[in-house]
Amino acid sequence: MATIKDVARAAGVSTATVSRVLNDHPSVTAESRERVLAAVERLAYHPNAAARTLRSADVTTLGLVIGDVLNPFFTELARAVEDEARAHGYYVITGNADEDPRRQDEYLDILLEQRVAGLLLCPTDRVSPLVEEVVRRGRPIVLIDRSIDGLDLPVVRSDNATATRELVDHLVALGHRRIAIISGPTSLVTGRERLAAFRAALAAHGLEVADRDVRIGDFQTASGVAAMGELMERPDPPTAVFAADNLMALGALRWVRDRGLRPGSDIGLASFDDLPWFEFVDPPITAVRQQTEEMGRAAVRELIALLNGRPARSRTLPCQLVIRGSCGERQGAQ
The HTH lacI-type domain covers which part of the protein (predicted)? Predict the structure, then answer.
């Protein structure tokens, strides 16, 4: 018996597009509609009416779209969301956007067709028409980790500014004066906030951030490797590097290790967002620890408040600076 995936494959479209055609959704192009209907007829596909009826009555399921399932931060976040949702009698359907706005919208589309009771979203780098449509239609939605410019939605997130300032204060106290940053993409609010806080914190110490001390990554390991190489291979390398995310910190650490250098003595290295194994690296990595589990659980509670007709509130959670040995010991100004 043919499935909706078979139809999508035969028509060269996504399963979401097939579903929209079968439900006579106006957003599908005439060409796509013709291909889907031809594939339906050729494969003798018959939608499962019982399953569609079940979906239409589903009020106990929440939808979650995360940025990158390979990032341990999002993995821990998704687990916390699921645990809290189950404690309140809800189940969770999770989609991995892989930091791609198009994939984000595909998952949102699927979740809306599944008629989930509400949505939890870690938004990608731009506002999509679909997200705006969700807001206009009044579908309950809570943002996690990142806000969306121009949309007044409840968001549960970390205090990026205070945590970054505390880390810079620590580096300066150790004697570092040439401090560089591997920033996340400035298209994301977390990237912009951490970079702005980094600049402001150094300025408070009378230190200027030159353009050569800023490298923009993409919250992925490979960008951390590349950025660290660019920073360290110049004639006047920094004495410390702040990687604004754990995967980029791992990439920076890989570059350092591959060249036989040692964090804490040859170069200071710190990360925004801790990892369980950072404490087992030699030397252990200094990191800003987010309240990831509480972030996920709090977002679920705020979404359930919306579902129960109560207002949801935004929350900004404090972080903890975990000082380890990767930035060196107190020394004179460099």
Answer: 2-56
> Is domain 1-47 given the CATH code 1.10.260.40 in the classification?
yes
Q: Please confirm whether the linkage preceding 283 is cis (ω < 30° from 0).
A: yes
Q: Is 294 helix (H, G, I), strand (E, B) or coil?
A: helix
Q: Which residues pair with 315 in a beta bridge?
A: 156
Domain boundaries, the chain: 1-47, 160-290
Count of C-beta atoms within a 10 Å radius of residue 53: 10
Give the span between the Cα atoms of 254 and 225, in whole angstroms.
7
Assign 69 to helix, strand or coil. Answer: coil
The Cα–Cα gap between 249 and 214 comes to 14
Whether the full predicted model's pTM is greater than 0.85, yes or no, is: no
CA 254 – CA 248 distance, rounded (Å):
10
Structure letter (DSSP) for residue 275: -
Q: Phi, psi (5° rounding) for residue 268? A: -80, 140
pLDDT of residue 4: 79
112 in Cβ contact with 139 (< 8 Å): yes
Q: How far is CA 86 from CA 90, 96, 114, 304, in A?
A: 5, 20, 18, 12
User: Whose CA is closest to 253, among 274, 230, 228?
Assistant: 228
Do the beta carbons of residue 81 and residue 145 sit within 8 Å?
A: no
Alpha helices in the chain (DSSP H): 4-11, 15-22, 30-43, 49-56, 72-87, 101-113, 129-136, 160-173, 189-204, 221-232, 246-258, 292-307
- pLDDT tens sequence across 236-272: 999 999 999 999 999 999 999 999 999 999 999 999 9
Query: Looking at the predicted structure, is the pLDDT value of residue 131 above 70?
Result: yes
**What class has domain 160-290?**
alpha beta
Cross-strand bridge partners of residue 142: 120
